[in-house]
Design brief:
phospholipid biosynthesis (chains A, B); seven-stranded mixed sheet; globular; Phospholipid_synth_PlsX-like (chains A, B); transferase (chains A, B); phosphate:acyl-[acyl carrier protein] acyltransferase activity (chains A, B)
Chain lengths: 340, 340
């Protein structure tokens, strides 16, 4: 398989990108890479060009550019060229640590949507306390407004991903809502609940509240992009703040604190690792014709490496083809809920 | 001042309610209490009936009842009687640890809304790392659907509360959104942003993301009830899960873990206290004609005590009157944003 890599996106590009790509290349014989970016910067970083080629370009999309305009105007940008490689069948999937908005635009306008899917959803994998598989949640911010049929499509796509890529048998699909009762929420969430309950081939377990996500209440959490964004950022912010406070308490706790910290170092490191989602790779823009995966702008080489493995799993498992087949068979429109 | 207390609402009622009320009574000479509930249960718990009277009733609203129906049918329920005492001017404010939905219904149908306020918002006070004042957030779930004018009203009400009850000079008011730029979010949040920017007497600092709430990014966080509910529960769930994991790591860490835990006990206890919001009292149903405040169903006597102090501060500061005056002067309709 061939993966198109935007080598210039991200805070530490191209260095961390190249390092992560080479680690994946060394371990995974089946992957070839095409790196899009400044050859003068990339070439000196490469240990070897085995299964790595470079397509030289000096244009790149900056983080503060208007996403749609940038993608339309900068036709030679590294991200845009990588997207075209996927569109033209030269690559099977695409990686970028650049602007999420620009990647969404490149995905929509160049790679293209799966037939009938209204909007791609942005889907990260998050840790859960009880399972090493974690859980996926979508949409977390590709869209601010959603309709029930879009949430249905997210559920179907997240289900295939959780099953094939995360290896979860019969994933438990749930709707993020403001209570667990079926009648909870606004119109959007009440309608979506009925649709998901009527959907074929989905193990829909009902509503879930954001308080129980990290406890592993569901494997696939379906949410509108606005609420999903708020929940995701609240989880990230709270873990970050709490772990920072604990670290500060240890450092400022004098001899007692430092000694206690030393004794608990292993345990706390274990917790930090457990809640570090980077081993699951990046966030997938699910709903496009090929895997398009976004790593954090601040991603280090290890995260880039895991994101490449994640893309490999999506390509090998033909996740996108399965989604296309499902929608071809069952329709992209949400099923009509049975009246009760 | 007189506070009407629903003595039968909550998991440990009436015991914890009575204990918390007596502690407040012993310390605060200015407060009189009327306890609504089963006198046969309440009387034996009382150390003294100084400034505490009991209105006997055996009817109460259960947690799983339909809120509106329960409030309408159970005319002798402890919560309903307490609400009527406020409505009839016999009490200045009301406390309950019972069903949130029922309290909202009792607030709307019995206590009544502030003229022109569309819907009351549920407002807890949450801790922030940098300030002992914490921050308030509303709405966190009284309403699943909101219009921009309602969010404007939340901003005004939260502002008075933060200033007068929390003692924050010129509170920083922010809109919870999916990005900090003014153009972020769906229609509701874009419109609300413009309205808040045009509102008089509000120190509106723009959008805030849920990742920075605990870091004290704002003093008053304005949000629609659905998003606010998701953010609040994500914060609560993440802190709970993380602190539980740390405790488990200490307990399962053998001698090393236990010794480390012992050394860090004070530091970790400090963090737990810092993130324990119960010292701020309960969640206010803001937008009603009088202070109506809800403690957690699982509230202990200490939380009940702090919630009584919170109610006292609202009555003493005339927070509700100030809100009424503001709306009388500036109108309850959202100001027209200036076109740019």
């Amino acid at each position: 398989m061939k993966i198109a890599v935007d080598a210039m996106g991200g805070d530490n590009a191209p260095a961390t990108i190249v390092e992560g790509v080479e680690r994946a290349r060394d371990e995974q014989q089946a992957i070839e890479f095409v790196l899009y970016g400044d050859e003068n910067q990339i070439r000196p970083l490469l240990k070897s060009d085995e299964r790595i080629s470079i397509v030289h370009t000096t244009e790149k999309i900056e983080m503060d550019e208007h996403p749609v305009k940038a993608v339309r105007r900068k036709k030679q940008a590294s991200m845009v060229l990588a997207a075209h490689a996927v569109k033209d069948g030269e690559a099977d999937a695409m990686f970028s640590a650049g602007s999420t908005g620009a990647l969404l635009a490149a995905g929509l306008f160049i790679v293209g949507r799966i037939r009938g899917v209204d909007r791609p959803g942005l889907m990260p994998t998050l840790p859960s306390v009880n399972s090493d598989s974690g859980f996926v949640m979508l949409d977390v911010g590709a869209n601010a407004d959603n309709r029930p049929s879009q949430l249905y499509q997210y559920a179907v796509m997240g289900n295939f991903y959780a099953r094939d890529v995360r290896g979860i048998k019969n994933p438990r699909v749930a709707l993020l809502n403001n209570g667990t009762e079926p009648t909870k929420g606004d119109d959007l969430h009440q309608q979506t609940h009925q649709i998901l309950a009527a959907a074929q081939g989905l193990n829909f377990i009902g509503n879930v509240e954001s308080s129980s996500l990290l406890d592993g209440a569901a494997d696939v959490v379906v949410t509108d992009g606005f609420t999903g964004n708020a929940a995701l950022k609240a989880i990230e912010g709270t873990s970050h703040t709490l772990l920072h406070e604990i670290k500060a308490a240890i450092m400022n706790g004098g001899i007692k604190g430092k000694l206690g910290g030393l004794l608990l170092k292993g345990s706390i490191k274990g917790i930090v690792q457990k809640f570090d989602a980077s081993r699951y790779g990046g966030a997938v823009l699910l709903g496009l014709q090929a895997p398009v995966v976004k790593a954090h702008g601040a991603a280090d080489a290890t995260t880039v490496y895991y994101t490449i493995l994640q893309i490999q799993a999506m390509v090998e498992n033909k996740t996108i083809s399965k989604v296309i087949d499902y929608f071809a068979e069952h329709g992209v429109d949400s099923p009509t809920p049975t009246q009760d």
